[in-house]
Write a structure and sequence with these properties.
- By secondary structure, this protein is mostly helical.
- It is built from 16 helices and no strands.
- The chain has helices at 2-35, 39-75, 79-106, 108-113, 119-134, 136-151, 156-178, 188-215, 230-263, 265-283, 286-301, 305-338, 345-375, 383-407, 412-419, 422-436.
- α2 runs antiparallel to α9, α3 packs parallel to α9 (230-263) and α9 packs parallel to α14 (383-407).
- The longest helix has 37 residues, at 39-75.
- The protein is globular and about 55 Å long.
Length: 445
């Protein structure tokens, strides 16, 4: 039985994991290129990344609902249910994206001013921020297309599109940042243009593939009315808790970024340099989290609750074992990693300390991602994860961050460690809910 599970995990999770690692790796390449522009540019790009992560996580939360619904309807072999779920979630996702995009384009200085009062940092970041805001549209489409394909167990397609996108991003970033082939050097703005081109190409590739699948009869892909009320009733009790959940969590993460920003430019730069590695190592298990949603959700859609529970326990063990391995690797390579960047010695030392803290926290972070982010959501009762994150972020994380930074005056690495204790709280609560089995629900009924 476990061999069967492992084979299914690899079929779904491996392409997603590889794609996540590749995305994190070209984020690393971006940082290496931007790193040659100096500390202010690194810190400025970090501020934009923090706000865009708020947008990404909010939109990804709607894509998660797409995954939950499509996985269960796919398990129930209901093509019309898949079609309605995909388009309803896509409409909502685009509407939310437009709200974020309008704010970014109209008041970029005020948004960046939330994180820092350094006018040089803001001035360097604004042009980059505006281009990244334009790229929110293709990113939204890619998230929805990928969620649809992965939940239908076709996760290799988003992987291939992601590889092409990665290559385009690296090439165009190099051309635009440094000014090659007759193109004038654009610095940080060039990094934004490279991202825009790569995201647009990725979304267009996935759209073309989906249209070909529709032509072959492999999928129903017929737009439903944007004004239909019934279709939104089905998803509302799932989507709104998870949407508020991810938005609230992302706001909390942005408050953490604002805390780091008030500590100083070097602190922001050090945290920014850790982001690619954090994304890479945690991204290794994003496939397991998505596989948990698809695999467990498919069985819940068939009313196979005992098998779903057994599978969930197996996936948790896989995640914990893998997390221990990668945390050890991160600890060993952290010293070498900081030598890749042309930054002040103080920034390099601080970055290494933060990575050491991260290596201690990885097991808890990854376990949370798979248990709360994948397993508990697979049944559609997303209010559980909403409560978990509200408690973790707002009762523990934010207060601990403010106290450690501004009352106890701790160094940045200890601030990061202290506020990250909210991850431990989340894991304890998540495991208690998991054991009660109240999360197990068939949303197709």
């Amino acid at each position: 039985m476990k061999n069967k599970y492992l084979k299914e995990v690899f079929q779904i999770a491996l392409p997603i994991t590889v794609q996540s690692i590749l995305q994190a790796s070209y984020s690393l390449v971006d940082q290496l290129m931007v790193g040659t522009l100096g500390t202010v540019s690194i810190a400025g790009s970090g501020l934009v990344t923090k706000f865009s992560s708020l947008v990404t996580f909010t939109l990804a939360s709607i894509a998660t609902v797409t995954s939950i619904l499509v996985a269960q309807y796919h398990g129930n072999e209901d093509g019309e249910g898949i079609n309605k779920s995909f388009f309803s979630c896509s409409y909502l996702s685009i509407a939310v994206m437009l709200l974020f995009q309008a704010a970014c384009l109209l008041v970029p200085n005020k948004i960046l001013g939330i994180y820092t009062k350094d006018s040089d940092m803001i001035a360097a970041a604004v042009p980059y921020f505006l281009v990244i805001a334009v790229s929110f549209l293709p990113m939204t489409l890619t998230l929805q297309f990928s969620a649809l394909l992965r939940s239908m167990e076709k996760s290799r397609i988003p992987l291939y599109a992601g590889i092409v996108s990665m290559m385009l991003n690296i090439v165009f970033n190099y051309l635009f940042i440094f000014g090659k082939l007759g193109i004038p050097p654009m610095g940080l703005l060039g990094a934004g243009l490279g991202t825009l081109i790569a995201r647009t190409a990725e979304s267009m590739m996935l759209l073309i593939i989906l249209l070909k699948m529709r032509t072959k009869g492999e999928i129903l892909l017929h737009p439903v009315s944007i004004l239909g009320i019934e279709q939104y009733k089905k998803i509302s009790y799932i989507v709104f808790p998870i949407l508020f959940n991810e938005f609230s969590w992302s706001v909390g993460e942005n408050i953490y970024a604002a805390i780091y920003g008030r500590i100083g430019t070097q602190a922001v730069a050090a945290m920014t340099l850790t982001n690619p590695l954090q994304g890479m190592f945690i991204g290794m298990f994003s496939g397991v989290s998505t596989a948990a949603t698809v695999m467990v959700g498919k069985r819940l859609g068939r009313d196979e609750k005992e098998e779903a529970y057994t599978l969930a326990k197996y996936l948790m063990k896989v995640a914990a074992a893998g997390a221990f391995i990668v945390s050890t690797i991160l600890f060993l390579i952290s010293g070498f990693y900081v030598t890749l960047f042309q930054v002040e010695p103080e920034v390099a030392v601080t970055t290494k300390r933060i990575l050491t803290v991260l290596s201690l926290l990885l097991i808890v972070k990854i376990s949370n991602m798979v248990l709360a982010g994948g397993i508990l959501r697979s049944g559609g009762k997303t209010q559980f994860t909403l409560y978990i994150d509200l408690i973790g972020t707002w009762i523990f994380g934010v207060p601990l961050g403010l106290l450690s930074a501004f009352v106890w005056k701790m160094p940045i690495e200890w601030v990061y460690f202290t506020l990250s204790m909210e991850e431990v709280v989340r894991l304890i609560i998540s495991f208690a809910i998991f054991k009660r089995k109240t999360w197990m629900n068939n949303v197709t009924k």
